[in-house]
């Protein structure tokens, strides 16, 4: 709660100091819709990270998975451009791609004891370089000088004509509601959440803890891959995967959202809106002033540390 | 090993101690003179462990003072502490542990000194062995060796003989008496009232975090100690009067291992006795959890060796684990929240339906009333309850389910005599009124004799002897176990 | 084809990674995961260039490393933040802060550098001091038991906070030197995200080396050798995609973690 109050105060100060920034960010309906476009993948990524955090695992490979999902839909979509299946195949395979990465990371952790943060961070670098190589190499658009894939022949259904806000936002909201229901209102959710502290409770009841954690991480990583696909499949002049797509910050922002929300899933939506605001405002700040966009990353990193401090402050180390 | 001697007493004045701002000990006073073996007695939740931790400087004091005489060294290096549940470093060698304790206290340490000290405490094991290779009671002895290596003036012990056999216990007390003769002062928290009478010089009785009495042992009787611990309810001592019940001739559980057979009938309470490391755990796990090597189990003539834990629960095989914190409950949640755990809903679909909170509240309320869990608030977090009350809740939660078979590991761990007697009564009622077959392990032999119909002894993984409970005495049971 | 350019590149890349790994090892031995290595190296590299390079830059890099790890110590031991989270957070902050500063005011294009020989001498001196400290049973046992069972260490009367603080300072100093040597033995300037994951490779080397000093040094040099392949290939005119070659050390790190079955030797207090 203090974080939200603090950021609100900072926002108010910003409004007074740089009214142009807020105008650029929220001064028009299209600007607001742009904000929602930014918020959509963040909500889904935050959801995935939060689900893993409740089982005591940290999904830090979100950045790489997001890129891998985007590249998957670009490749599949352009390969199956002659059939209407291209859209669904692309989204499904993007989910599957993310799930595979999550499966690898989770399997390493549960069966080999390799910490998911270490393997996740290495996977980020591997996926960054791999997606860059593929988008700039075998799957590069031969008709263009710029390093990106071919244009997708379709877009995801739009929520508002002329803007990028698409069905992904609705999907994200439905996922969030389902997630809150399962994790807070059902027996299976309570067992999954007990994994944050100990395996014994689920083990004794007959729910295999390792398999459960793997399942949660596979689904979480899958939906982050799906978020990447939604991002690439949205409307706009460039329905392509650029070779420098990695580095959008969605993965790490998702981690901040997951931490900010704390143990309760109810704070996921306000956390998402907060981080989306930060991202959107930093874009606007760089447009309105001479400050580089990295000011947003700096604020995000500080927010990450503050959120982490607040989340774990009252938990003593066992 | 020559400890230094004090000239002045340990003085605790009006201390208040607690966890997370909640006091568990208040207005407590204690004076321990040099050379005493001072026992702390009290029922669960009395605050004995908390007081010991405060003296050892492991927790802070909310108010009041603790004055430990020093000899110009840091006081913590003059106080040795043996925990009830050790936290020894599993990957380190015994020699490294002992050396670490000595060096931290400012003494030197050589390998032969370390080996000598281990032998002195009764640990006939090489210093090069790792802590992970020791049994529970060997780890307890290692704790004692480490404490003595620091040449303390004061030794604090929290239930040190809880996991020791009778013989090891005798050796332990001999060692303690020898050290006290050389100047050591001892404060020991123990449930074993006979040990207090036999070996201690003084006793302090605590109840609900407060001081009840402090006397010389020679000036007090066992009954007075018991009365001081729990004056309202007089615990029943000795053998329980057991209601009559029929035990069917055909066993519903058959366990075979290494040429021996263990049968459990409907309405029967079958006890398992054995030392730590004897392999009793395999018999419990083979029935409640997963298949164990060389053990086969059938329930109602159906083999369960390949059955998963979830299937066993569905078949009505319930389980109360020994470690409630890790396996039984989520202690950061409330009592009514914890009603969810222990067993999954019988249908996979039901796991995804909304939880009915009212139902959980009603069930939890029934349990706390029946089992006298205090305080009686189902919305309170479990970690704000004492260990004994947590255990009562856990046992109550599982016993209230309708199961064909119950496997219970250490049901009276952390419970005092009053609560243990209550558990005995509940188990008798369960076996009498339902068709449940119960397999129970406890290191409390009195509890086993009072509660069970049949008792089997496990040693080296083998079932060595099975007799009706009335055919056993504590002495013969100890002899069979050892 | 001569291998000398490859060996030279391996040395220039290997020494920073090796120093980061050995520094991180001390911290891990005390029971705290050393996720902060990436941010520590990056900050030290940045400070080393900004303070003029050379020996001054090296010393400033050392102190900046200590500053980063001291922040980590405060977050973990005073604010009770999980060590992996604190490490990742500090890495994010270091990346954002150094990138931001580079955008506002870019670093000098060239500062006085150190020769490979100087780098090797500095690294050897660091290792020699470290080995001498670890040979002292009083220091070694305090470090070990704090990492294996902090509560037991407290029962013995050991001030575990002090042990962890010293471990953090040591880690920061050595990793800071490693981070400073990255540009000082290399291109002589700072570029954004200069470390590019080498801190995580150092961490993988610790795990792969099973927390044994000799094995950790060998593993980190091995990863550096793969890292140097990309530079080597470009100088030899080998036509292989730079991204694929750059991927090799990270892939090797992941495979190394996979190959190491059952984590033995890791301090029990370590959350990773």
Q: Identify the biggest protein-protein contact and residues per side.
A: A-C, 43 and 45 residues
* CATH hierarchy class name of the largest domain in chain B: Alpha Beta
Largest sheet of chain B: 6 strands, mixed
Largest sheet of chain C: none
Number of strands of chain C: 0
- This entry's quaternary arrangement is heterotrimer
Number of strands of chain B: 19
> CATH homologous superfamily of the largest domain in chain B - what is it?
P-loop containing nucleotide triphosphate hydrolases
Query: Taking strands numbered 1, 2, ... along the chain, how are they ordered across the largest sheet of chain B?
Result: 5-6-7-3-8-9
Please give the domain count of chain B: 2
**C-alpha end-to-end distance of chain B:** 30 Å
Low-confidence stretches of chain C: none
Radius of gyration of chain B: 23 Å
Count of helix runs of chain C: 11
**On the 0-100 scale, what is the average pLDDT of chain B?**
85
Structural class of chain C: mainly alpha
CATH topology of the largest domain in chain B: Rossmann fold
Would you tell me the structural class of the helices and strands of chain B? alpha/beta
Portion of residues in beta strands of chain C equals under 5%
The span between the termini of chain C is: 42 Å
- Overall mean pLDDT of chain C stands at 90
Which features would summarize this protein structure in a list?
heterotrimer; B: about 475 residues; alpha/beta; Rossmann fold; 2 domains; six-stranded mixed sheet; about 30% helix; globular; C: about 270 residues; mainly alpha
